[in-house]
# Entry
Amino acid sequence: MKREAKTKKAVQVAIVGGGIIGTLTARELSRYQLDVLLLEKEAEVGWGTTKANSGIVHAGIHEDPGTLKAKYCFPGNQMFPRLCEELDVSFKQTGILVVALAEEEMDMVHMYYQRGLERGVPVRLLSREEVLAQEPNLSEDVVGSVFAPEGGAVMPFELAAAAMENAVANGAELMTESPVIGAWVEGEKKYLETPTHIIEADVVINAAGLFADEIARMFGDDYFRILPRKGEEYLFDLELAGLVNSIIFPVPASKISKGILVIHTADGNIMIGPTSDNVPAKDDLGTTYSGFERIFSETRRLVPGLDPRKVITQFAGLRAASDRGDFIIEFSPNVPGLLHLAGIESPGLTAAPAIAADVPKMLEEQGFKLTPKENFQPRREGVVRFRQLSRKEQDELIRQNPAYGRMVCRCETVTEAEIVDAIRRGARTLDGVKFRTRAGAGRCQSGFCQPVIMEILSRELGIPAKQVSKRGAGSEQVKYEAKELLGKGVS
# Structure
């Protein structure tokens, strides 16, 4: 087949997909003397399923015995404290409550409790009085609960970005805006084609999320399907912070969902959702009125004080469910050297560190020799979060760098210096800045700060304002600059 001349690049391991699985896998492999390249089709990592993830670090009591979900969930949970400390990522071990609102639901509560004991998960049974003492804003109808104190919340995009930043610092390579448009095998080598490159690899790791089955089919590997499952979520103003202190689960009524939750996020907001609806399209990210009604109906049974007038934004994400109903973590039976990390739906975020840690072992089992690096650095340079500092610490920072004294996002108390740091770490878009710093994530949803952030992006990236985008090509926010309008006679 004749192909256009493109830049050719040879690596030992190519990872397709920059979600939480791909980025953590890149970090794990950067521990070894390997040429590792991650290809991401978007302008930044973490913009697929990861970005719209609920951010819950599950405890390990929901997953059915014998599944890969059960195998990886609790080990992944146990890795989060150290992982987030090393990468300086926000993580709160808020604990998880599975709450019964009727006596007949207590059978499920006891089942989760027993499952936790069998798996070594720290769990406690709580009476009605104990639950309400811990969460006084729960419904008076509560009967009892199982409490898993080591469950918690993380910011998924922040973790993916930090993992990739650390992987790159340890020698891995990242190519964004590089969708895979073709793939084939020649001899023992695998090839990936992007709009600009031909990548030759010994091993291809398919971590393409919703599109993992399509990447597999490019290689002629057609034995699983990814079935998109949509979840809508609603985020409240920080004014409601403290309404709940934990992550509140109902007793689930469906085998494909853990229910609609009340979530205490790692940043302190309250969030409710998600729904769980199978949809035909992999780009169906719209929220719906029916979803809104269902979410509020269910969550107000748990927490009556939820006020829809305090919602500041809503969004939907798509889970990459597989037709197996479980994770797919295996080398292809048809294409040697093609490793599928696919079908990673809930509790995929929690399981991700444990899945990534198994990848080097899986490579060695296939005969690949891995030599650890002596100079691997697991720690990412720490991030300054100005809003979390004492007044004395803030004053000292401003003395050292006056840009910390220039407030850009008033809602979330984010300074110019923090935005500049985020850009220098890899942010290239408004969403990249938002998800790294929270600038634009508050009550006004960037109504005040967006023009200032655009100016900073333009300056730091050395691009004109009309090239500054929300999330990559096609989402630019400015059509004409002022000087161009003047040239057209517009005043």
